[in-house]
Design brief:
single chain; alpha/beta; Rossmann fold; Alpha-Beta Plaits; 3 domains; six-stranded mixed beta sheet; 14 helices; binds adenosine-5'-diphosphate; binds magnesium ion
Length: about 375
């Protein structure tokens, strides 16, 4: 029935009929108002929204008691790609993902996921999405297989189908050997893989990954990145949150930089890096206490203020004057008797972008 109705609505809109006229025509044809209301009310694509957007967020705000976690956020997520929400702890990433996954109501604003409104059509929307949480939602006492089986049953798969899907996922995520052990014996990396597998039981079109690799060792992180890449190749759309620049750089086709509930920049990793422009000069001081003095001495070669970090002894400064400044920088530090353990002139990284935009680092590099 839904196909017939949506097809009619599409044509009626094309001919300029209003929602009221469409409702009247459909009820005259024998439909009950409550059966068709949500199809009629489903908003047409907003002006400026692109056809390949699968998630569209328009002016979403979220106020907890005293905290404004999201402040008028608007963004679009492209179908079949990886989009990253990059930002430090407390930026509002989890809040936005929970709103899009229909687990939390926004204070104001609108969002659609796969054409469905997150506030008015949560039931339908849930069957299209998967969510792997920042805090893995698997049962410790059960085995990996039992966990996946249980999720299958929650999605009303028949027992045989649920079992088959569990076996398939255990294989795909390299968990076959550990499949029948309680999850409490799993490593961090295995748990994350199981959590991700659980979010895929119902073959979601859209997958939300909230900090999928936070706290993992580099090898497990790398494995998970490959799994995510494979899912995207198979056509899944991924929206992931991360506080790791490198993760966004490696995985994301498009990055939204979020801080204090605001989108402060967006683009591909390369576009964001270009915003910093030029090169970055990096000094590693042998004596960490020398950073402020060193920063003062090199200041005039920079395009912006040098950032001195006395805890790691590193001074970072954007510059567009090229390698010719290196000799002069070394000479000056030498005559002030400040010892260098390293000096590097490099292309900007996403860390530099974040530093430039916010004046502070993310937790991962502080
Ligand atoms: N349930 C809640 N009640 C009150 N404040 C909250 C709640 N959840 C999150 N916050 C606050 O909202 C802000 C955004 O949090 P969150 O979305 O978890 O950020 P992130 O996931 O980027 O770390 C933070 O200041 C956080 O303290
Ligand atoms: Mg979070």
């Amino acid at each position: 029935m839904s196909h017939q109705v949506t097809q009619y609505i599409k044509e009626a809109r094309h001919h300029g009929l209003t929602n009221e006229q469409i409702m009247k025509a459909l009820t005259d044809a024998g439909w009950q108002a409550h059966e068709i209301l949500e199809f009629v009310l489903e908003p047409p694509r907003p002006a400026g929204a692109s056809a390949d957007a699968i998630i569209s967020v328009r002016g979403i705000s979220k106020q907890y008691d005293k905290t404004k976690a999201l402040d008028n956020i608007s963004l679009e997520v492209k179908r079949g790609a990886v989009t990253a929400l990059l930002g430090p702890n407390g930026a509002g990433k989890t809040t936005l993902v929970r709103i899009l996954a229909t687990l939390l109501l926004p204070t104001s604003g609108e969002a659609t996921v796969n054409g469905l409104n997150v506030v008015t059509q949560p039931q339908k929307l849930r069957s299209a999405i998967g969510l792997a949480g920042q805090y893995a939602a698997v049962d410790e006492v059960l085995s990996g297989r039992e966990n996946l089986d249980m999720v299958g049953q929650l999605y009303h798969l028949n027992p045989a189908t649920a079992k088959a899907r569990a076996a398939e996922l255990l294989k795909q995520f390299d968990l076959e050997d550990a499949a029948d052990r309680p999850v409490k014996t799993y490593s961090g990396g295995m748990r994350r893989r199981l959590d991700l597998a659980a979010s895929l039981v119902n073959h979601p079109k859209i997958l939300f990954l909230d900090e999928p690799t936070t706290g993992l060792d580099p090898r497990s992180r790398f494995t998970l990145w490959n799994v995510i890449r494979e899912l995207v190749e198979e056509g899944t759309t991924v929206l992931l949150t991360t506080q790791y620049m490198e993760e966004a750089d490696q995985l994301a086709n498009h990055i939204f930089v979020i801080d204090h509930g605001h989108i402060i920049a967006q683009g591909t990793a390369n576009e964001l890096k270009k915003q910093v422009g030029g090169d970055v000069l990096e000094l590693h001081m042998t004596n960490h206490d020398d950073v402020s003095q060193a920063a003062e001495l090199i200041k005039e070669f920079g395009d912006g203020e040098p950032q001195a970090n006395s805890s790691n002894g590193i001074v970072i400064m954007p510059t567009s004057q090229g390698p010719s400044i290196l000799v002069e920088v070394v000479r000056r530090l030498d005559s002030a008797q400040l010892k260098l353990s390293d000096i590097i002139l490099r292309r900007p990284s996403l860390d530099d972008v974040f530093m430039k935009l916010t004046g502070h680092g993310t937790q991962s590099n502080e």
